[in-house]
## 1
Amino acid sequence: MLVSRLQRQNIPTLGIATMQQTLEELRKEPADLLIVDLQLPDGNGLEVLQAVKQLGMNVDVIMMTGFGTIETAIEAMKLGASNYLLKPFSLGQFELAINAVIEQRNLRDENRTLKERLAEESGSNPLLYRSEEMTRAMSLVKRVATTDATVLIQGESGTGKELIARAIHENSNRREKPYIKLNCAAVPDNLLESEFFGHERGAFTGATARREGRFEQANGGTLLLDEISEIPPNLQSKLLRVLQEQEFERVGGNRTLRVDVRIIATTNRELLKSVEAGEFRQDLYFRLNVVPLKVPPLRQRSHEIEFLVQEFLKIFAQKHGKPTPRISPWALEQLSAYSWPGNVRELRNYTERALILWEGTKDLEAADFSLTPSPTDDGLFPVTGNAFPTIADVEKRLINLALKKTGGQRTEAARLLGINVRTLRNKLHEYEGGRESDETSGKTDEAPASA
Ligand SMILES: Nc1ncnc2c1ncn2[C@@H]1O[C@H](COP(=O)(O)OP(=O)(O)OP(=O)(O)O)[C@@H](O)[C@H]1O
Ligand SMILES: [Mg+2]
């Protein structure tokens, strides 16, 4: 009766007779809600409850018990049941119990999404940098933040332009005011104007109600125009007007609205090239480019890759409830030499994946990051635009590798490398200061250097 009642409300419901089958079904397909009787042919409801909680299933449990067993109901609640029903109960009571659980569940989901969004927007996604290049960029950010100057952030995809834009807003006097983002590339051309400026009711087919645009929403605060190079010519002139006069009309409206908005624009193209190609208005370019901020690609600040990887590992270890793995020096070297066409975004994603797949025992190796090799890459020595390895680099890496493989045994390492021990020793001497030569010196029979 209860099953058909729920099905009539369009809640997909399955009726199951035994504890065994319940657990099997749950393993096959997760459910949101389990309504379980205390007495089952092959066990009891409390066991089911314990099992799903132990397995960490995200399922709510309502326990049905006979009149005489209120203690059991209390115990069920202690074990994590969401609600209970004392038999006999009416369909009204049944529905109340179900609705209460659904409501709790929705609140919990909503709470979780909000928390995730919050974490994404702040704490767990901090702007990390250590290189001189980024330090210089960030000191500019801090200086311009408190002015109302328009900032144009240019940089390859994944270099952190959005994080920087947010940092500008958060360091500005507008930080308590709205921070609104509009991705110009994500909105179809014909809807972009209404996204910008809003529309009046009936302005076009489908405009069933008046709608505020992003400029209005951002009033008093900051508006981030993401991927600015993508806006069509007719809108470029309208945008220019708002930037110059801070006023505009809604689509289909004739009232002129005034706003006070600070503009930050980003692009992953060379906007000046678009100007030269006649695709982007020059006057708009100058209006936007009051403070130009160029974010260097990661391969031009490869000396901070090691730092970024370590920080991301810490962040993701915490997120996924794992200890922070160590990463081998050889892997760090390879990560630093990789070209990172997707910049920090790519590094971040690769690091998270490596951490998720990490079994928690050995150090992370380069293979755990499964880098996509560049076309000129032979797999052993990653080659990037500006970091072509010299013969000395390659030799050094190869020697380090051999020493690592042999646990620092020089005689054995020399054999692997096909050179004699004296040559190896001379080379290590030459590369003095190299990690491996320091660590391993003294481990072996140091004969006096021969002439
Ligand atoms: N310096 C940094 N520190 C920490 N995380 C970073 C840094 N730079 C980029 N990221 C991360 O990389 C990802 C991409 O950053 P962001 O969205 O700011 O890039 P973008 O330059 O706007 O790229 P696109 O042009 O593709 O939109 C985000 O997850 C961001 O958190
Ligand atoms: Mg972006």
## 2
Amino acid sequence: MTKTADAIIIGTGVIGTAVAFELAKLGWKTLSVDRNAKAGHGSTAGSCAIIRMHYSTFDGTAFAWEGYHYWRDWAEYLQAPADEALAKFIECGCLVMKTEGNGQLEKHMVNSRDLGCPYEEWDADQIAAKLPIYALDSFAPAKRRDDPGFGQPNGGRIGGAVFWPKAGYVTDPALSSQNLGNAAARHGAAFRMKAEVAEILQSGGRATGVKLADGEELHAPVVINVAGPASARINAMAGVLEDMTISTRALRQEVVHVPAPEGFDFEANGTIVSDSDIALYCRPEHGNHILVGSEDPPCDAHEWVDDDTDYNREFSDQWTVQALRYGQRVPSLGIPSQARGVVDLYDASTDWIPIYDKSALPGFYMACGTSGNQYKNAPIAGKMMAALVAYCEAGNDHDSTPLSFDLPYIGKTVDVGFYSRKRPVNAESSFSVLG
Ligand SMILES: Cc1cc2nc3c(=O)[nH]c(=O)nc-3n(C[C@H](O)[C@H](O)[C@H](O)COP(=O)(O)OP(=O)(O)OC[C@H]3O[C@@H](n4cnc5c(N)ncnc54)[C@H](O)[C@@H]3O)c2cc1C
């Protein structure tokens, strides 16, 4: 059996290419395999690519605050040649409405304060000054369109918000994967596109490579599952589902693109807004558009998908519901008759916190369950996965003695066991895309 590589990475999304880059920098000969023709054309391409720092857990906040710095220093991080077209990070800030549901953001502010991540508390006047198109009536809880109370304010008002000034978004998420792929290739990483993994090869109780759909075998002592919404299928192929307390599942999502109301330049003067009162988040988009995603309120049906290659890619009533909910906040919003935006899949985990871990099969690793909120963390997740693989392959038992990992920018150490596949469900999670 000829070894093709030291490690085979399944998936060339933003996290898969970051894992390739970080392992290649450590001297590993990596081979990334993807069924798509181009890197970043899985769920990464559909991402809103919001880089925010507010998470309900301390570990989640630390990881995201660390993650921000790589986007800020993108060209330097990649060591990219001057003529390479790079994805851009737009640092427009993120405003999060205080609501009963998010505990008035008390926990989030404590996490940020403890980590030295800047934030500002705003009152209603400051919100109105930043976003003059916003009406601050409260509509919580979010309702279905057939509920007689849909669109009716509840009599309360949004009283305040927290603004995280360092937050922003990346203009072209697929390009950011390609940037990472190019950076990895400069360190010797190889890529096999249009190659679908059909089987995880095993021998003597460990992973030994992958078999492609056309029958070709690729051999390596390490295989890493970074297959996004296909992660559960790949884990099933490896036979590693049994010892996992946290499972992953593909969840269908619709993102609305609407023009900003006339007379307000949302692209230049707007901000990212997370608004649990109407169960939506939004961000500025090119051409003075606004991109509106859902925070998945309990009243909306969750559409779980068994086959991530075969699902409804058309807009549904969910698009209209999201647009109308945003119209509750922005009364001057014009809702186009033709739906535009994105239909894609999250790889949602049981507690909406990712799994960055080894598995029950020696040599087989997983970076999955990214739950609609790990784009921002791709570079640091790649670095942590590379350290985890090196730690385990050196003979350490990460299950019994979890790896401690230093976050280089913010100078904190995290227990990688936080992301274990075998953890108890994390009760501190928001159990939503907010993580
Ligand atoms: C609508 C939407 C909005 C989002 N918004 C945000 C946001 O604002 N901020 C944020 O931080 N995160 C966000 N996310 C989440 C973020 O985009 C994802 O966590 C991230 O892109 C996942 O990257 P990945 O590399 O793990 O997976 P992917 O990009 O899905 O890549 C997986 C790759 O694996 C390949 N693959 C799968 N199966 C096989 C197989 N059998 N053989 C070969 N190749 C295979 C696929 O072709 C694909 O290219 C959002 C996600 C979605 C869907």
## 3
Amino acid sequence: MLLSRVLEEKLGSLYRAGGRIVGGVYLGKGQEAFSAALGIQLRKGRDIYGPLIRDQAGRIAFGESLLDAVRTYLGAVTGPMRGRDGNIHRGRPKEGLMAMISHLGSLVSVVAGGLFARRLAGTLHDSVGATSIGDGGTSTGAFHEGLNMAAVEKLPLVISVANNQYAYSTPNCRQYACVDLVDRAKGYGVQGVAVDATDLGQCLEAFDAAVKRARNGEGPQMVVGHLLRLSGHGEHDDASYIPETARKGPSSVDCLPAAERRIIDEGWMNENELKDLFTEARGKVDQAVAKVSKEATPDPFKEKWQALSSEELAEGHHEA
Ligand SMILES: Cc1ncc(C[n+]2csc(CCOP(=O)(O)OP(=O)(O)O)c2C)c(N)n1
Ligand SMILES: [Mg+2]
């Protein structure tokens, strides 16, 4: 959570400084507990993970390196997308980390399809797949079709729904008419639970249980997290449409200081140890940015213009 926050603050500054970042910058500020709590349940190389734009924390928890992130944002040819694709559309499919297509539901069928393909090939074993969606994304056709198919096939798919109250500038009241998005799980025949996504403890318990149920063959699981988006949709957006009452309301809790308070109250670490963690995270991020800043960007005149579309990068490909 901390490393994600520090990295994203750095990426935000680089974006505002102008000219350093390839593409936009979309932050998961305030969603780190919910995102990391899912990522940490997954086993890299065995499970499938399809993170979305607010899942920097989940990516780190899953095991994506800081260098993969920084190289993609800075467009370095050494990164997993080889400088072809900015920001969040990065992945390593061979390691089960899917490259994001869109934030609006398309990863549900990609992850479900990956699980189904493994089942047909006899390689599913006890692996699970997980992906995220925002409140707005749960109203798209892609989400509905993907989740319905996963439920019919009883695939071990875990969906985390981060209800951060806004889809860009559209508030919840203009998005859906059910009481809680978790009510939708029932309609698909999927087990669903709702949590306070600003509370790390609740998030960890909910995802631990959901991933276990999926691994046990109980079919798709939905975890809905309630929180407020604490940044703009992207760094180009000042979110001036979010009213003061919401910004200062009870759901505008930042999960990071809340988790720090819990850690201190439980006596797991003291303030100085937490400060050391923060300094360590800053050091790691600064080091990664300094290293990547010296690396080359791709030369379109000398190289083939493709990122993941080459066969050897796909899951299932075996070198001769
Ligand atoms: C077809 C399409 N329309 C619009 C967009 C731009 N867009 C990307 S994410 C998004 C809002 C998503 O809201 P939500 O699902 O609540 O996720 P959040 O951003 O809050 O995490 C929009 C409008 C897009 N990517 N694709
Ligand atoms: Mg939203």
